[in-house]
Amino acid sequence: MNQEIAVKVNIIGTGISNISLEETISIFNSWIDKNEKKRVCVTPVNCLLWANDNNELRKIYNSADLTLCDGVPLLWAARMLNSPLKGRVTGLDLLPRYIEECYRRNYSLFFMGASEGVAEALKRKCEAMYPGIRIKGTYSPPFADRFSDEENTKICSLINQAAPDVLWVSLTAPKQDFWIYEQLQNLHVHIAIGVGGAFEVTLGSIQRAPVFMQKAGLEWLYRLLKEPRRLYKRYLLEAPRFIPLLIKQKLKNMG
């Protein structure tokens, strides 16, 4: 597991970076200032479950420069394993917070992904909130489980013409994590990070759960009630597998 930047806590085989939101922002700033190239994954429980079944995905998360704790259940899991995490760092919190930081420090951004028009609308909202912010481009590729070589060449060319400091990718997990891992060597960026549906939430087209539900670890329930047809499998069929896997790891650690 890549632990050069922050120690990772092993939760069912995936290392989660033990880092706070403010520390994440500080590290991002350092990477950009030092002209480095880094890959960041934002990982809720379901990402860990998918990685448990997919060695390649587990490798992607474990080799990432940061693998962020997206969700209260991972905080509970780490505590149960006697390796508490400093806090959660969700894409929904990090994206708006770091957009503001980019404005303050004159870093440049590129929004890639989401449904047609979402990235461009987010760009307009940011420019209205932060006049002079350097959003150097947006692109929403056509939906595909896997992009063609021609489409990947087009995407990389658009991004490289802009050469942003931060590339935000909204393709849903784990598709965004595979794409960044496979294309990073072709990209002229400092930080590439997948943030799932954070574009829509930051834009305001999708409402986030109330704060009390976020803190209680019930954000998943709010999302399920909002989008039951799309999310029932993730939260009602896949997520319950997490508890027995966690208990198995706890018992193994005790042995």
Compile the SSE list and pairings.
Elements: E1 8-11, E2 14-17, H1 21-33, E3 38-43, H2 45-53, H3 55-63, E4 66-69, H4 72-80, H5 91-105, E5 108-113, H6 118-129, E6 134-139, H7 149-162, E7 166-170, H8 175-183, E8 191-194, H9 198-203, H10 211-215, H11 219-226, H12 228-238, H13 242-254
Parallel strand pairs: 3-4, 3-8, 5-6, 5-7, 7-8
Antiparallel strand pairs: 1-2
Q: Mind explaining what this structure looks like?
A:
This protein has 255 residues and is an alpha/beta fold. The protein has a single domain (8-203), classed as Rossmann fold, CATH 3.40.50. The chain contains 13 helices and 8 strands. The strands form 2 sheets. A 6-stranded parallel β-sheet has the order 4-3-8-7-5-6, sandwiched between helices. A two-stranded antiparallel sheet has the order 1-2. Helix 2 crosses helix 3 (55-63).
